[in-house]
Amino acid sequence: MNEKVRIATLRERREAGGRIVMVTAYDYPTGRLADEAGVDVVLVGDSLGNAVLGFEDTIPVTLDHMIHHTAAVCRGVEHALLVADMPFMTYKITSEEALRNAARLIQEGGAEAVKLEGGREVCPTVERIAEAGIPVMGHIGLTPQSIHALSGYSVQGKEASEARRLVEDARLLERAGCFAVVLECLAWSLAREVTDAVGIPTIGIGAGAECSGQVLVLADLLGMTFSKPAKFVKRYADIGADIRLAIRTFANEVREGRYPGRAHAYQGQKKAAG
């Protein structure tokens, strides 16, 4: 049986030079399967907007959406650390409101930590939430909730001044109390520089191999998306094609009168009689 992953586990993993594995999950089945596969962190990401709810981006995702899906994932996760995203504008109005929203994800959703996007501008909020005893994971680089301000999805930190700012943002998030930070779509050399600049784990997504760990959206990993994946995504299965084929086969058998066949009817009668 796997031991429970905690904040200290991730810190020890980084210090020992090990790699941290994080995947997203959005419901009981995916949460349980990810947990049984032995990942370290399950993230209930606001990427559920794209991956599950059919939105074009993460901005329409609400706190109630996140609580609902986090609670479902929680019921399937025993060993991994369960982290929930704080969705758009749930942590940027006041620190007190952010704390209340984070508390709901913990108390109602069952999360063990929350993740929020941003650098120095969210540090007072990170500090407030962390001081209340709620672990906080940071997220810098490409921050999907700011996609309109960033003018699309692209590698961040290309300019020297922007790169310096991102390194300093990571340091400030660590000082504010973040136990880890996601680095999204950074140049590999910059992600290495950020990782070297902080003592907390860095979790990369499209940020190269020298972060403390890696995260992928489960739908991307499994081939269950309906658009072209990002260049950094590696698909480890094509579950979407398997599901489509299974449903099409079922439909054909029903239409042709082959399901349920004699064998299925006989088995059903035996169970009813027994």
Helix content: 40-55%
| Extended strand count | 8
Describe the biggest sheet?
Answer: 8 strands, parallel, barrel
Structural class: alpha/beta
The rounded Rg comes to 21 Å
CATH level 1 name of the largest domain = Alpha Beta
Count of helix runs: 11
**Average pLDDT taken over every residue:** 93
- Describe the global form: globular
Number of domains: 2
Query: How big a fraction of the residues is strand?
Result: 5-15%
Please write the string of helix (H) and strand (E) elements.
HEHEHHEHEHEHEHEEHHH
Q: State the distance separating the first and last CA atoms.
A: 36 Å
CATH fold node name of the largest domain: TIM Barrel
CATH 2nd-level architecture of the largest domain: Alpha-Beta Barrel
* Strand order of the biggest β-sheet: 1-2-3-4-5-6-7-8
> pLDDT below 50 for ≥5 consecutive residues: which ranges?
none
For the record, what is the CATH homologous superfamily label of the largest domain?
Answer: Phosphoenolpyruvate-binding domains
Task: Give the structure's gist in a few sentences.
The protein has 274 residues and is an alpha/beta fold. Helix content is 43%, strand content 13%.
Q: How would you characterize the overall build of this protein?
A:
By secondary structure, this protein is an alpha/beta fold. It has 2 domains: 7-237, Phosphoenolpyruvate-binding domains (TIM Barrel); 243-273, no CATH class. Helices cover 43% and strands 13% of the residues. The protein has 11 helices and 8 strands. Strands 1-2-3-4-5-6-7-8 form an 8-stranded parallel β-barrel, surrounded by 7 helices. Helix 8 links the parallel strand 6 (180-184) and strand 7 (202-205). Helix 5 (95-107) packs across helix 6, helix 6 (123-131) packs parallel to helix 7 (160-176) and helix 7 runs parallel beside helix 8. The longest helix is centred in the middle third of the chain and has 17 residues, at 160-176. It is globular and about 70 Å long. The two termini are 36 Å apart.
